[in-house]
Backbone:
């Protein structure tokens, strides 16, 4: 095994054991994605490039692969929002996941990285996010979903590439969504670095 890969997996195992002994969920090293995300795609007539991709882990278990697409390279959520162009977040489930649990985790991630006032202002849009995922009892390995922000139109949600109703929210709401993975309290610190292209090679 490559020396770096061996160190990474040893570090992941150590982090997982520490988390278990402390009773806490701890971020661990992200691994290369098993999903082959395309290098570019088109959203609302705008060509977006793969900004970065990574795998979301819970302890040592893979939950989903995730990719972020932007019109040009960014290294922060704020920089992404300043582009003024569409942003797409693409996901592929790697294990069986409850749709309701996933929606609740997203909501908690937004709350952890946003002010109470912002959470209150966007409660309708946030509830819509939960409703979309709660409508699926389970996401199975290989199932895809996505979130796409278009300035002036809002955020659209997709499951298996099918739009789930009309866009919701505004730029502030999508900034909250980005905060789940790119905020100061991200779902996984190593996934955050991977999405921003900051992960060490």
Residues:
């Amino acid at each position: 095994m490559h020396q770096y890969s061996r160190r990474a997996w040893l570090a992941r195992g150590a982090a997982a054991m520490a988390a278990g002994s402390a009773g806490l969920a701890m971020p661990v090293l992200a691994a290369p994605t098993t999903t082959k995300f395309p290098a570019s795609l088109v959203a609302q007539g705008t060509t977006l490039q793969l900004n970065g991709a990574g795998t979301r882990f819970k302890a040592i278990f893979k939950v989903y692969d995730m990719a972020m697409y932007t019109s040009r390279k960014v290294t922060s959520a704020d920089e992404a929002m300043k582009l003024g162009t569409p942003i797409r977040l693409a996901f592929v489930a790697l294990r069986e996941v409850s749709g309701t649990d996933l929606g609740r985790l997203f909501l908690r991630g937004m709350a952890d990285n946003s002010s109470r006032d912002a959470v209150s202002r966007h409660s309708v849009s946030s509830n819509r996010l939960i409703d979309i995922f709660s409508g699926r009892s389970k996401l199975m390995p290989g199932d895809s979903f996505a979130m796409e922000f278009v300035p002036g139109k809002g955020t659209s949600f997709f499951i298996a590439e099918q739009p789930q109703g009309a866009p919701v929210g505004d730029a502030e709401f999508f900034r909250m969504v980005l905060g789940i993975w790119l905020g100061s309290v991200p779902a996984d610190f190593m996934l955050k670095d991977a999405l921003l292209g900051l992960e060490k090679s």
